[in-house]
Write a structure and sequence with these properties.
Layout: H1 2-10, H2 12-33, H3 35-40, H4 45-64
Length: 66
Amino acid sequence: MGEQGRCAWHGRRRRSTCLTDLAATVFALPTALFPFPAEELAAPWALGLLYSASAAGSLVAAATGG
């Protein structure tokens, strides 16, 4: 396993592909998990709020940023 990881990490293209995939996975994880707290709260309307919260936060950051 270690030798395969070192082989994949040495190529510049492979490394950038791995890092891009890791970033996409990390940033998409909360969106993938949103249905679970909404189901746990028995509030299907909360799912829409959770999905729109990131867009609303981006809008506030863009409006108040320098």
